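Q: How would the structure tokens look for this protein?
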Amino acid sequence: MFAQLVQLLYNVVDRIYIGHMDSGDSTALTGVGLTFPIVTFIIAFAALFGMGGVPLFSMANGAGRPQQAEKILGTSAYMILLSAAALTILGYALKEPILYFLGASDQSIVYAEEYLRFYLWGTLFSMIGSGLNGYISAQGFPKIGMMTVIIGAAVNIALDPVFIFALKLGVGGAALATVISQAVSALWILRFLTRKATPLRLKRENFRLDKSLAARICKLGTSNFVMSGTTCFVQAVCNSTLHIFGGDLYVGIMTVLNSIRDIFMLPISGLVSGAQPVMGFNYGAGKFGRVRAAIRFNTIVGAVYTAAAWLAVFLFPTFWFRIFSNDKAMLEPGTSAIRLYFFGFVFMAFQFAGQSVFQALGDAKHAIFFSLLRKAFIVIPLTLILPRLGMGVTGVFAAEPISNALGGIACFLTMRSRIYKKLGEKES
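A: Here is the predicted structure in token form.
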């Protein structure tokens, strides 16, 4: 969780600096916001091939099969390398038409292209950091996994003002600082996973495509891919719809809201990420009571945290907004939007609690379904329909709390009835 708190600095510090460039002009921030779907799409593949293997890795380790666990790690790393190369090539070839499709204007695309021109260099580093760090924590070394994030964040925070302001590289400087920091994190991960003292290592003989393991990794990782991939499409639909009904100003406001959401989402993401290896290991070892205890802990702590986060946003919306932009034109409409967007944020705790159990215990079918339900089947249709029913940009911001409530409750109740109760029966 501490690593995730540091990670929020990693993710949002670029936007904080960029939002205060050019005397607070929001165009640069809008441009960077247009790149979010592309960045999220890259992370989706890291989740597919990386995090898809972590539950299998934990269960094999818990069942006393270390060689199988190392083969899972090697296959996962190999697929990350191949996908990173393909995504880098496609990114450079198609970035301009994709950005216009995502709602870029002739003014904002200048900043968006500048950011991507540097960011795409570090695709491999980004995917290693997102996809392989979980294999460190899954072996019982959460402090080492935490340092991956801390080191990268420290480098990024130190380099941002130098590249953006001192060297006058602007948006490109922010992206370059991110690439360098991601490279440092990736090297840290690879050094740990390949050293002799590490219990389960990334070995050369396992760094290959094992088709059987790859299929299992992809099957389980599809839920992570769908979660990240649908986030990509949600961002794309939101940006393009806001551009139609509100222009660049509202795309910039959504960039700020996504940034604030990142701040509040990362701690709970760290909570469930830490719980997944625990649940997977104990499930593999047949200790079902401990799995149930982890589920209860996730749910209670997550609900308390998200309720507190919602209250902080509701009471002090202007404070959070000004962190990312001091553009007066954005402030008033942005303050109204943030209160609506975060209404019902507490339901995300139930979504995460249910989703993490399905992923940790290998229930790919339900993990995929509930990933799709909240975003693809609720958020995207509402984002397209509500503005056209006379709600305008308000309809885009209202789609989020509606989906949180419907998707979160459905996911949690299904997990409780299909898994939690059955674990209690096995325990007794």
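Residues 2-427 form one domain.

The longest helix spans residues 248-284.

Upvote if useful.
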